[in-house]
Write a structure and sequence with these properties.
The protein is built from ten helices and six strands. By secondary structure, it is an alpha/beta fold. A hairpin with a 7-residue loop joins strand 2 and strand 3.
Amino acid sequence: LTSTIIREKNNGDSITTVLSFSNIFSLLQSVKARDEGKGEAVGKPPQQEEPRHPRNSPAPTHGYSRYDQERFRGKEETGDFKIDTTGTYRGMNLKSVTESASKPKPQVQPAKAPPTHKTNESVRQEVSKPNRKDHRSRTPIVIVPAAATSVITIYNARDFLEDFRYVPSDDKKRGGAKRQNEIFIHRKKPHPTQPGQTVSIPYRVTDNPLRLSPPEWKQVVAVFVAGPAWQFKGWPGLAADGSPVDIFTRIKAFHIKFDELKLDSSIQKWDVQVLKISKTKRHLDKASMMRFWETLDKFILKHYSDLRY
């Protein structure tokens, strides 16, 4: 080593320059190699090892880049496995997860189209549906006798009130007419503001008044009386002795009879308007039914002006 330093100094460099610009470790390695005959070139620095990281030091991390995520996105994220990548199982246990996965999804049924033809039930719901402002229906109600011997019944009420024509109830039954608890008829009358035009007013007709609710009783405007007082059993406002006199003060009473028959004694005592028809002359039926509607219009105007009529 000393001779090497002297040789380097003889080349014209000072000892300070030699020690400052020479790699002492490299110089030692070259001297050792020369002594051992390995033929290493003097002054050739050995290959340096890469620095090792401390045992507990964290590995270097790269900065976040949203473009790195694109490498993991394919055309189909889950292939054919049908996995919902937007769902979550937070708050669920293993049993609930497996049960929900095995449960078949309900089939959505297409909405059914509404029927184009309105049935009697759909008409009843339309005209009897309470108005949201008034909180009750404005459709007048007419009660007919349930007795089969009555001239007017639920079977022929439409023929009477709509067509102004009497058809015996027995004929309607033989023709296949079915028994109904109530029906809806439409009365046509001249339009109040448009001359030559008509309007159709719905009326609800029933022979089972005991099914009416208290609000519906406020819509009852007329009743066809058969004769016996038992027809009014269970009605609100019935007198203690069973007399319907008080009922007739708020509900207009009518009685239809054949002109050749004697009037019932009970009808004679009550405030009931009698309508006469012929057994054989059907062309006279319209005149009697027109009187019915004229009388009823005046009664509704006086006592039930909030209803449609």
